[in-house]
């Protein structure tokens, strides 16, 4: 006799519809630093923000300016709390519901990417950045008895993925599921997070390893990408219930002898990406790099730009496979994740060129549409355990 689970009634989780969701882009202006206050005091900022209109004016010269619209315009007075609420909170909430999410910072070195994302804020809690605040919200929402949160922390430099939680792993391979196309990093350390303090400790360890790795390789951290991956696994609270019939086959006839609700789990992922500085690397080698190194250092970031351009233009060919960064961010741009980008700029007219290219990157990213989709699946392990129990009961009944 066979015992087969058969779907009946309800809505199969794999059918859950994908919904179109555009990449959201905020621009954040860093306050003038001491240098800029002293040296450029007589010059105005190269940008003028109109946050209530969600507009930014870029000065070309004394007479001309160009106006750009963003989803959010964050002035030099915007608090870390507000930046979190505007840029990251909607994504975090969506991850808690079972969608993948991405929060990424793009901009020239020194404009506040790490301040925005990675600031630990231990001495000044108001300064806490997006990573720390996101984990606070995640830990506050999950049910510790049934849900788990785990993290990996990686650095990508010259097309090599290094494990910031275990620096011995310095060339982690990307593995692609041939069936779903999903990418994973089976070689990366995954640490379960139970409380906020241990998470902040992990971030601190990761940051120390990042500095050490860069010293060893004689590289500047501004040239590497840092990726924090937060995996959230939640038992579904029964929103999509579905019956599984257990049929006992007897010769040609089969009859339903019972049914049970298969448990569903949601496995979603939040990726926080602190990109390498967007400024062009000097190909002449004046930074101590050979031309080959300069090309390799630039590869992932320029590949990301090309993918975003292709997606923004609805081009049939998106060159995802050109770099490790674009492979890792496949779901973040043109995939199933909800994605929020913050482009960071400085006020100095000396960096007008870099500021302009950062703004243009942000404008193109605003045209990218993702198809967000619930990441839920049957909890096969727990379903099998329950089927085993039902089977034992049936056998015991038959033996009576
Ligand atoms: P990036 O990661 O883009 O290279 P950082 O985050 O390291 O830039 O910022 C460069 C410097 O500017 C740091 O000293 C940082 O503390 C400071 N900074 C950046 N953004 C802000 C901000 N919004 N308010 C105050 N200081 C900031
Ligand atoms: Mg940085």
Explain this structure.
By secondary structure, the chain is α+β, with helices and mostly antiparallel strands. The protein contains 9 helices and 20 strands. It has helices spanning 34-39, 80-97, 113-118, 130-141, 196-216, 291-312, 324-328, 352-365, 380-399, and strands at residues 3-8, 19-22, 24-29, 47-50, 55-59, 65-69, 72-74, 101-107, 148-157, 160-163, 175-176, 183-184, 191-192, 225-235, 243-250, 253-260, 264-274, 338-345, 369-372, 376-378. The strands form 5 sheets. Strands 3, 7, 8, 9, 10, 13, 14, 17, 18 and 20 form a 10-stranded mixed β-sheet that branches. The longest helix has 22 residues, at 291-312. Magnesium ion (MG) binds at residues 113-114, 274.
Keywords:
three-stranded antiparallel β-sheet, binds adenosine-5'-diphosphate, alpha+beta, binds magnesium ion, elongated, ten-stranded mixed β-sheet, about 400 residues
């Amino acid at each position: 006799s066979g015992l087969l689970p058969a779907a009946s009634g309800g809505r199969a989780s794999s059918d859950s519809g994908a919904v179109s969701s555009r990449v959201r882009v905020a621009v954040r202006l860093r306050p003038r630093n001491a240098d800029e206050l002293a040296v450029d005091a007589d010059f105005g900022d190269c940008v003028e923000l109109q946050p209530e209109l969600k507009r930014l004016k870029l000065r070309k010269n004394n007479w001309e300016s160009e106006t750009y619209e963003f989803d959010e315009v964050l002035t030099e007075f915007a608090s870390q709390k507000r930046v979190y609420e505007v840029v990251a909170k909607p994504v975090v909430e969506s991850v808690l519901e079972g969608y993948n999410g991405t929060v990424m910072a793009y901009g020239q070195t020194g404009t506040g990417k790490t301040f925005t994302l990675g600031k630990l804020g231990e001495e000044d809690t108001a300064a806490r950045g997006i990573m720390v605040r996101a984990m606070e919200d995640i830990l506050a929402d999950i049910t510790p008895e049934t849900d788990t949160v785990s993290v990996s922390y990686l650095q990508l430099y010259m097309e090599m993925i290094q494990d910031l939680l275990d620096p011995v792993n310095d060339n982690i391979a990307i593995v692609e599921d041939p069936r779903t196309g999903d990418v994973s990093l089976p070689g990366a350390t995954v640490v379960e997070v139970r409380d906020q303090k241990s998470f902040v400790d992990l971030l601190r360890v990761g940051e120390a390893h990042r500095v050490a790795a860069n010293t060893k390789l004689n590289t500047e951290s501004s040239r590497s990408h840092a990726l924090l991956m937060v995996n959230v696994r939640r038992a579904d609270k029964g929103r999509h219930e579905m019956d599984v019939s257990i049929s006992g086959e007897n010769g040609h006839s089969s009859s339903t002898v019972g049914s049970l609700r298969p448990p569903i789990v949601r496995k979603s992922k939040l990726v926080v990406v602190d990109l390498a500085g967007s400024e062009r690397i000097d190909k002449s080698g004046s930074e101590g790099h050979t031309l080959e190194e300069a090309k390799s250092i630039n590869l992932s970031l320029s590949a990301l730009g090309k993918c975003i351009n292709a997606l923004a233009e609805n081009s049939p060919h998106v060159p995802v496979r050109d770099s490790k960064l674009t492979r890792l961010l496949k779901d973040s741009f043109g995939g199933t994740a909800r994605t929020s980008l913050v482009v960071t700029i400085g006020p100095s007219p000396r960096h007008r060129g870099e500021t302009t290219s950062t703004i243009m990157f942000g404008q193109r990213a605003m045209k990218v549409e993702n198809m967000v989709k619930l990441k839920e699946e049957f909890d096969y392990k727990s379903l099998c355990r329950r089927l085993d129990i039902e089977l034992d009961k049936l056998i015991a009944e038959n033996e009576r």
